[in-house]
Specification:
95 residues; mainly alpha; two-stranded antiparallel ribbon; 4 helices; 2 strands; globular
Length: 95
Amino acid sequence: MDLNNLYSFDYLINEAEELVKEALGKEMENDSEICDCQDCILDIVGLALNNIRPLYKTSLKGSLYTTVPDEKYLEALDRAVKLAIKKIKTNPSHN
């Protein structure tokens, strides 16, 4: 059964994705050595997201609320972003 043809998943959102992109943006403001090419940015965001707990939410009426993650989660997210930056800096997918 192909669920994508039967249901709309437009309202299934991982809030962690926006938090990771926000954290990466802040890191990029302070570190000019982070490669800003499409490949590196996607690799950093993907790697960071793979190392933190997702924060999915759903709403058929759109975003009615924003989940505020606790301090422990935000610290783990920050560590995941910094580790992803370090790994991609050391071994970028481009040459």
